[in-house]
Amino acid sequence: MTMSNITVFMPSVLTLIGIPGLESMQCWIGIPLCVMYLIAIIGNSLLLFIMISERSLHEPMYIFLSMLGVIDIALGTSIVPKMLGIFWFHTSDIYFDSCLLQMWLIHTFQIMESGILLAMALDRYVAICYPLRHAAIFTQQLITQIGAVVTLRAAILVAPCLLLIKCRFQFYHTTVISHSYCEHMAIVKLAAGNVRVNKIYGLFVAFTVAGFDLTFITSSYMQIFVTVFRLPQKEARLKAFNTCIAHICIFLQFYLLAFFSFLTHRFGSHIPPYIHILFSSFYLLVPPFLNPLVYGAKTKQIRLHVVKMFCS
Q1: Which of 109, 88, 93, 103 is nearest to 23 (CA)?
Q2: What is the three-state SS of 62-116?
Q3: How far apart, in whole angstroms, are the C-alpha atoms of residue 195 and residue 183?
Q4: 165 CB burial (10 A radius; 0-12, 13-18, 19+)
Q5: If you compute the radius of gyration of the chain from its CA atoms, what whole number of angstroms results?
Q6: Which residues does 174 contact at the CB level (< 8 Å), separation at least 6?
């Protein structure tokens, strides 16, 4: 029901326009996105199959990597099919509740991925700094508890974003979202009301998660480097350092992309909107795309089992 010419009361359907300013090129932009998505699905599924079927890989590091693979598959699947539908088939409409669900899934999986990266850093810290106690500390029970806490933390932190939008806003300036997927601030900007609380809570979640996880991840790797450089033999130092290379690569690409996207979104007012949206779309797909490639190339055990599987 329309209350005035500029205000819509509780819209049931929203419209995602994709990438404003690049509508004529969206069909071509969808091709690399689709390729990245397919590689992410195939790569992560292959890693999951190998780590489930090979009992020698049933160790904490590989269990956390399996969790990361599941999250990557779920994150990509919650974004790409609808995005390609917009780019290729012009199916821009999305139900309001479906849009909120997509927003909740995207941000929940992002926070879960950050939590798993923290768990992997702590696992490497214990394995290198306290190798004799690693098996006693990282038991199956602890790994299960870490997975549950990571999931609950993400779901609980993002849930208020849904409630704040659903309960506080009844009138909207427009039903058109200038984005290729349902993102928190993209939805909030549609509302005809005071959005300060939503902005503050969004910043609170971002800084809480990034601050907590980054602090402990950085501390873990600093302690790892100190321990590694104290080892007397060069071969032992290289071996210990090589076990962390893949983790460090994934950690850096995830947080560097996240901070660049966050800073350009908040402070890059002079940057064209299509640059923001293009970058944020690729940012969500780069970690799922790169994770299996990096771990497959840098982790010897996984690489050997991949070669063994294809050769057989």
Answers
A1: 88
A2: HHHHHHHHHHHHHHHHHHHHHHHHHHHHCCCEEEHHHHHHHHHHHHHHHHHHHHH
A3: 15
A4: buried
A5: 21
A6: 8, 190
Instruction: Catalogue the long-range contacts made by 293-297 (C-beta closer than 8 Å, 24 or more residues apart).
Output: 293/39, 293/43, 294/246, 294/249, 294/250, 295/47, 295/65, 295/246, 295/250, 296/43, 296/46, 296/47
Given this model, what pLDDT does residue 266 score? 62
| Residue 21 contacts residue 182 (beta carbons within 8 Å) | no
Task: For residue 113, give the nearest of 213, 226, 208, 235 by alpha carbon.
Answer: 213
- The per-residue pLDDT for 264 is 66
The sign one gets for the Cα dihedral 217, 221, 223, 224 is positive
AA letter at 6: I
Burial 148-159 (b: 16+ CB within 10 A, else e): eebbebbeebbe
CA distances from 204 to 115, 158, 166, 208 (A): 16, 11, 19, 6
Could you give the CA distance from residue 200 to residue 180 in angstroms, rounded to a whole number? 24
User: What is the per-residue pLDDT for 4?
Assistant: 45
Ranges in the chain, pLDDT < 50: 1-4
pLDDT score for 157: 95
